[in-house]
Design brief:
Number of strands: 7
Order of helices and strands: EHHHEEEHEHEEH
Strand order of the largest sheet: 1-2-3-4-5-7-6
CATH superfamily: Gcn5-related N-acetyltransferase (GNAT)
Strand content: 25-35%
Number of domains: 1
Helix content: 25-40%
Shape: globular
Structural class: alpha+beta
CATH topology: Aminopeptidase
CATH architecture: 3-Layer(aba) Sandwich
Largest sheet: 7 strands, mixed
Radius of gyration: 16 Å
Length: 180
């Protein structure tokens, strides 16, 4: 997948070291339910297992001009029967690339891939209540609020609510699709 500024490619083993580095950063930690003590070995183990599971996809966001990996996308719960999937993790991990619209650009690319290439009917995602940056972007893209999943995640040993949003194929074509 390619756009003006980005290439989204399948994750390769060497990307795990970057994920381990990024996922220690405070702004990443605050946005997801992942535990602070996640380490390189755990990320590698997850990567290897997920490559074998047909209901999961792993991608790395690369800044085209510098051919530099800057972020991560992890898709799970791919259901070919219901034509649905979940964006489980999507973030820009290199701080100097934040606030430049690259997260939105990555979302456009991955949504196009999901709705056009994979022929999905429904894409879901969730976010922690305090993640206003994500909520604003998802609303801008046309995701619809479905509700709050109570105690659906665990962070630092405590259960947390997650806000659930979705986009349907028709909504993608009405609101979100653009030529990249």
């Amino acid at each position: 997948m390619e756009s003006k500024n980005l290439i989204i490619r399948e994750t390769v083993f060497s990307d795990c070291a970057l994920f381990a580095e990024w996922e220690k950063k405070d702004y990443i930690q605050e946005s997801f339910t992942m535990s602070r003590d996640r380490d390189y070995e755990e990320i590698v183990k997850e990567y290897v297992i997920r490559t074998q599971e047909p209901d999961k996809l792993q991608f790395t966001i690369v800044y085209r001009e510098e051919d530099k990996p800057i972020g991560r996308i992890y898709i799970s719960r791919i259901d070919r029967q219901a034509d649905s999937l979940d964006f489980t993790r999507i973030y820009i991990g290199e701080e100097e690339y934040l606030g430049k619209g690259l997260g939105e650009e990555a979302m456009h690319l991955i949504l196009e891939y999901c709705f056009i290439q994979l022929h999905m009917e429904r894409v879901t995602l969730d976010y922690l209540p305090g993640n206003k940056r994500a909520a604003t972007l998802y609303e801008k893209l046309g995701f619809q609020h479905e509700g709050v999943m109570r105690n659906a995640g665990k962070k630092n040993g405590r259960y947390v609510d997650l806000h659930l949003m979705s986009m349907l194929r028709a909504e993608y074509f009405e609101k979100c699709r653009r030529i990249i």
